Amino acid sequence: MGPQVDPVPEDDSRPDSADVVIIGGGIIGVSAALFLAKSGVSVALCEKGYIAGEQSSRNWGWCRRMGRDPRELPLIVEALKLWPQMEELTGTDVGFRRSGILYLCENDADIAHQENWLKIAGDHALDTHIIDGAALSALMPGATRSYRAALYTPSDGRAEPQKAAPAIARAARRAGAHILANCAVREIETTGGRISGVVTEKGAIRTGTVIIAGGAWSSHLCGSLGIRLPQLVVRASVMRTGPVEGGPDNAAWGRNLAYRKRLDGGYTIADGMLNYHHIVPGSFRYLSDFLPMLMQDWRMVRLRAGMDFFTGPFGLKPSTDPDQTVYEQHRTLDPMPATARLDEVHRKMEEVFPLLKGAPVLQRWAGFIDTTPDAVPVISPVQSLPGLVIATGFSGHGFGIGPAAGRLAANLATGDSPIVDPKPFRYERFIDGTKPRPTTGV
């Protein structure tokens, strides 16, 4: 079962119409709703389950510039301007702290890899630099293992996934947005070749603009409109401990382990490398799109075959109830965590930080990460269907970039000046013959 998420009260009524309808109540969708509502646009957000029920509450909680694909750097710079404002914008402490992030290097090859990122990032690297020796040891109090060096960004930080999106959703409602939980969109309607409305399980909403911010569900939603969106999902597992005294206050990534200090004093811990992909029909449909990434990152993804191919949420026959869509059948994706793998990661963490021994493991969970063939999101209008904007495929780095990505989606939905150049995130790159340029990000 996923982590407990701060509640968001449901709206009592569904509007008959809205300027913009957003599908998906993750951090991207609620951020778009907030900025639209604050600019006077009428907006209705429809979430089939509860706000932040899926990956927006299940991620590591990192807010990082470091290690990103160069195409994302301008957007994360804007996001890191918004995160410090989040408590004022929402009236809630969402746990954002500029506590710094480390990418740990075990050998010369690791150091060379991180130095290459510094060259690519250029001016966007800002305060990122290589550290070693005593400077690195000071950032890892309690560690009994030393590392050759680390890439370090003091201005990167962390926030609490279980608090952030719900707080933004509540702020969006106060600004005038309708936040409709347990309200699946069954159909996106078109008239005369453009968006004209949505049909939800609670009734229809007329609109000229729809933002699909459905995370793992976005490709399925686009497919219902005849739009090919190459997107697959990988299963990532996470655990959290009880409070620990004396450990590092920052976050770090290393081979086979990653950690983040939590606002409650415990640690979020995960495998730094390995995720799982469950083979579904889309795995074959988009094989040619994802093959370059699979060949590059084959050590980081393990394939799993099973009944998911037939009866899973993205399988051949995901729904058997004629009165319910697949979105209602699967209100919240809640996959089982890779418990054995997490136990191994926990042992490695205790070897590096013996002070973690005895700290209780309070919870383990997993989530489905929506990925694109180049690991860069789609934040884009669709030229073939006026009124449709897609904001998805954040490939495991959507939480930190979320507020700015939502703002960009809102800009594109209304035709306002975009917060950054949206060209790197255009949907058409997947259908116009552009070859994907995948990056690992670390």
What is the helix fraction of residues, given as a range?
A: 25-40%
Number of domains: 1
**What is the CATH-assigned architecture?**
3-Layer(bba) Sandwich
Largest sheet, if any? 8 strands, mixed
Tell me the strand order in the biggest sheet.
5-6-4-14-15-16-13-19
Pfam families: DAO (PF01266)
Domain FAD dependent oxidoreductase: 19-412
Keywords: Oxidoreductase
Protein name: Glycine/D-amino acid oxidase-like deaminating enzyme
Short description:
It comes from Pseudaminobacter salicylatoxidans. The chain is of the alpha/beta class. The chain is 28% helix and 23% strand.
Give an overview of the whole structure.
This protein is of the alpha/beta class and 442 residues long. It has one domain (20-430): FAD/NAD(P)-binding domain (3-Layer(bba) Sandwich), CATH 3.50.50.60. Helices cover 28% and strands 23% of the residues. The chain is built from 14 helices and 21 strands. The strands form 5 sheets. The protein has an 8-stranded mixed beta sheet, with helices on both faces. Helix 3 (73-82) crosses helix 14. The chain is globular and about 65 Å long.
SSE blueprint:
Blueprint: E1 20-23, H1 27-38, E2 43-46, H2 55-58, E3 62-63, H3 73-82, H4 86-90, E4 101-105, H5 108-121, E5 129-131, H6 133-138, E6 149-153, E7 157-158, H7 161-174, E8 178-180, E9 185-191, E10 194-200, E11 203-206, E12 210-212, H8 218-223, E13 232-241, E14 251-254, E15 257-261, E16 267-270, E17 275-278, H9 281-285, H10 287-296, E18 301-304, H11 308-311, H12 326-329, H13 339-352, E19 361-371, E20 378-381, E21 388-392, H14 398-414
Parallel strand pairs: 1-2, 1-12, 2-8, 4-14, 12-21, 17-18
Antiparallel strand pairs: 3-7, 4-6, 5-6, 9-10, 10-11, 13-16, 13-19, 14-15, 15-16, 20-21
Helix pairs in contact: 1-7, 1-14, 3-14
